[in-house]
Amino acid sequence: MKVRLAPELVKKLKKQDVRIRKNLKIAIDLFSINPQDSRLDNHELQREWEGFSSIDITSDWRAIFEYKKVGDEIVAYFVALGTHEELYQEP
Hints:
Layout: E1 2-5, H1 7-14, H2 18-33, E2 43-44, E3 53-56, E4 61-70, E5 73-83, H3 84-88
Parallel strand pairs: 1-5
Antiparallel strand pairs: 2-3, 3-4, 4-5
């Protein structure tokens, strides 16, 4: 599956520890081969993230994406990266 990263996610990624960058690359590579690999815990989200899905990057870090149709292909467009608390905290 093709994967694209939103510019905001790339900008945030550049500021992260090398461990997070490395783990995201590993997760994206695995996702490209098999989006449903159990190590990713790929699942749909609810509430403010309804329509998006999430994969695990580390035990606490997540990457959020949505499926988009581009021409004849479905692309996973990753839009957010952060800790579980950063991404899902209640306002």
